[in-house]
Amino acid sequence: MKYVDEFRDGERARGLAAALRQEAQPGRHYRLMEFCGGHTHAVFRYGIPDLLPDNIELVHGPGCPVCVLPTGRLDMAMRLVLDHPEVILASYGDMLRVPGSERRSLLQARADGADVRMVYSISDALELARTNPQRQVVFFGIGFETTTPPTALGILEARRSALDNFSVFCNHVLTPAAMQAILNVDPASEESVEIDGFIGPSHVSVVIGSDSYAFCAGQYHKPVVIAGFEPLDVLQSILMLVRQLNEGRAEIENQYTRAVTSQGNAKAQQVVQEVFTLRPTFEWRGLGQIPTSALAISDDYAIFDAEKRFAMRYVPAAGTKGCECPAVLRGAKKPIDCKLFATACSPESPLGSCMVSDEGACAAYFTYGRFREDALQRQSQQRAAVKARRQA
Amino acid sequence: MNQVDKSFQAGRRQTRKLDLEHGRVEMNHGAGGRAMADLIDLLFRQAFDNPLLNQANDQACFEVAAGRMVLTTDSFVISPLFFPGGNIGSLAVHGTVNDLAMGGAQPLYLTAGFILEEGFPLKDLARIVDAMAEAAREAGVLIVTGDTKVVERGKGDGVFINTAGVGRVLDGVTVSGDLAQVGDKVLVSGTIGDHGVAIMSQRKGLQFATALQSDSASLNALVAHMADAAGGGLRVLRDPTRGGLAATLNEIAAQSSVGVRLLESALPVRSEVRGACELLGLDPLNVANEGKLIAIVAADQAQQILAAMQRDPNGTAAAIIGEVIEDPMHLVRMVTAIGGERVIDWLHGEQLPRIC
Q: What does the alpha-carbon distance between residue B25 and residue B32 come to, in Å, rounded to a whole number?
């Protein structure tokens, strides 16, 4: 398959792995955060940890839209469909399986009679609105800068065709703000995560451009290498980060030059600016309230804002008790550090959002990596503990 | 029913009122009266024509061969009903024939149960029935008894078909999901994911253009060739339908209390399938097949069996894709193209495209 096979070539991968083993300095520990859940997925899907020396550790970041949406926002969607029988809620598939308060998901709400539909894109939601003029169609908009432009175009299309039974429940969030929040944690605090550099997002960077991460290098002296999603992209980016760190550099480098420019996609940025406005603050699962980290629908397009149309109100809610998703999303814990991992929580019956989405670190560990030694050790300890408790 | 029975015993085809060009399924086609007799007579019996069926009894009566028999049943509720490379009718034959073949059996007889939705075009039903008849002929199996019910409009999805089948186990063959042994080789009979991607390309909301055809086919001849080559070396046969290769190998690993290690570089996957899966965020290992089998065979007879498979038209792209290993967790894992390793898991929930 052209343009894909070149980036999954075994021989080149072995070459990069050899270079990493040679260049990673033995006395040094490299902690690199892949911000994006797409990278976490790729890391485990291709077995990249098997090619890395022990002193290069990948820390999984919060770049999974389903994962970072706080329970309170999901509860808003749940109340919307339960309180308004006229509403058809159109959502991407993953969002439907995340447990909200009382461990109930939108799929369960659907089984109870709520009208929740899985869609592949906002165009499907617009089509639903056209074909159901008597109903109110609400699109559950989530995602980072990658999915925001399509939502903006959907709203523009709704205005053009005067679709007054269509609105968007907007939960779009911003990558640089989240990176800054991670870097801002006081190193003395328990929540702090030591990170030496970032593997930067690929698709997000196509939209916002590599210049958007300048603050990482400038303000925080952390190198960023924007990386493609293919395994060779990831390996090469890790090598580029190791080289920067070895040479004491902190720069924004672009490995994914076949798609990312310094300025990004001006047209996409322009439609986003037209339709959305910055929220003063927004809650993230795991990262708490982050100022100017999310978008709301601007006043000019307020009639398409489901939060206004249905007077939806945000009530903060706690996640599942014992679930370590918040710490996993900060990079402070690994999925296997959670006592629910692979015991009470699995992709079949997820208790936390990170076990739902393919891009969630817990799902990636479970689906692709659970034969790994550390996971096994942890699991056997947990099993022993459960057994001991039962015996007691 | 008497009149119908007589007409068949006499081998005559009476022309009755059944407008196969413009007609639609009506409630009375399932009501047990003349209309139902017409439907059975002019559509089903004409197509499936064989002496056992033509006896027109409510059951088929036949001699039992010596040896072990295999019995299976499967229901088909596919959407869309027509897809590149087949339709629900051919699928209903292939599916049950293959379930018998995966028991190491030569299929003998099938039954066919139809649940039709009121209003369904008879023209489409005829296409489905003709495809069933052709698939049965190709597989050398007879459809010997059947049933027809009609449900009100809105209570079905056009056509549902159930087929059951009986077959006789080939001499010298003993296969079962719990017989895989450490050291055995894992073989697949051809490219994976073709059927699932061909279906998805036609599904509403996902439509994309592809020249890909479903691989739907009967595999009993392939199994017979494998048994001829080294029947004693066959341990497990299974067709990786729903859930794909991943689900099937996980089932076998659990049943046999072993692990499986695959080599990604050895997996036959068409580039169209890889491309479509890439686009939709799917894994070809989870995508359904309808004309492929997985064989777990004794290592010392693997080459012989592989050669026999490759000589069959349904096995030209057969390959050895991995081996059975010892693993207390009974996991299926794969050495990736870049040399890493990962688990090949069951699919969790529905196969949903990723969102970004």
A: 14
- DSSP annotation of A173 reads B
Helix (H, G, I), strand (E, B) or coil at A317: coil
- Can you read off the two tokens belonging to residue A10? 């075994």
Instruction: Answer whether A45 touches B (CB < 8 Å).
Output: yes
Task: Say whether pLDDT at B304 is over 80.
Answer: yes
List the structure tokens of B145.
Answer: 């008894």
- Closest CA of chain A from B122, distance in Å: 29
Chain A residues with CB under 8 Å of B354 CB are: 94, 358-359
A14 touches chain B (CB under 8 A): yes
End-to-end CA distance of chain A: 58
In contact, B60 and B146? CB cutoff 8 Å: no
Closest CA in chain A for residue B259:
A371
CB contact under 8 A, B343 and A348: no
B265 in contact with A at a CB cutoff of 8 Å?
yes
Q: Evaluate if residue B292 carries a pLDDT over 70.
A: yes
Cross-chain Cβ contact A17/B339 below 8 Å: yes
- Residue A319 CA to residue A240 CA, distance in Å, equals 37
Q: Which residue has the tokens 């089509």?
A: A127
Nearest CA in chain A to B331: A371
Q: Which of B278, B338, B353 sits opposite A10 (nearest CB)?
A: B338
Q: Which of A276, A304, A297, A311 is nearest to A126 (CA)?
A: A304
Residues of chain A with pLDDT under 70: 373-384, 386-387, 390-392
Q: Which of A4, A371, A380 to mutate to test the interface with B (most CBs of B within 10 A)?
A: A371
Indicate the pairing of strand A224-226 with strand A197-200: parallel
Instruction: Identify the burial level of A237 via C-beta atoms within 10 angstroms of its C-beta, where 0-12 means exposed, 13-18 middle and 19 or more buried.
Output: buried
Half-sphere exposure of B7 (CA within 13 A, CB side): 16
Q: Is the minimum CB–CB distance between B349 and chain A shorter than 8 Å?
A: yes
Residue B75, judged by CB atoms within 10 A of its CB (0-12, 13-18, 19+), counts as middle
Phi, psi of B206 (to 5 degrees): -125, -5
Contacts by A294-298 with C-beta closer than 8 Å and gap 24+?
A294/A171, A294/A172, A294/A173, A294/A174, A294/A177, A295/A148, A295/A170, A295/A172, A295/A173, A295/A174, A296/A170, A297/A155, A297/A168, A297/A170, A298/A274
pLDDT digits (tens, 9 = 90+) for A211-233: 999 999 999 999 999 999 999 99
Closest Cα in chain A, distance from residue B160 (Å)? 24
Nearest CA to CA, how far is A144 from chain B (Å)?
9
Predicted confidence (pLDDT) per residue in A300-324, tens digit:
999 999 999 999 999 999 888 899 9
Q: What is the pLDDT of residue B6?
A: 43
Domains of chain B and any CATH numbers: 18-169 (3.30.1330.10), 185-343 (3.90.650.10)
Taking the Cβ of residue B333 and every Cβ of chain A, the question of whether any pair is shorter than 8 Å is answered with: yes
Which A residues in the span 91-150 are in contact with B, Cβ-Cβ below 8 Å? Answer: 92-94, 97, 118-120, 124, 142-144, 146-147
As given in the structure block, the two tokens for residue A91 are: 């959502």
Q: Please, what is the Cα angle at B260 between B257 and B264, to 5 degrees?
A: 165
In CATH terms, is domain A1-321 a member of 2.60.34.10? no
Residue numbers in A near B275 (CB within 8 A): 1
Contacting residues of A for B274, CB less than 8 Å apart: 1, 4
List of E strands, chain B: 69-76, 82-83, 86-87, 105-117, 142-151, 159-169, 185-188, 234-238, 259-263, 294-297, 319-325, 332-335, 341-343
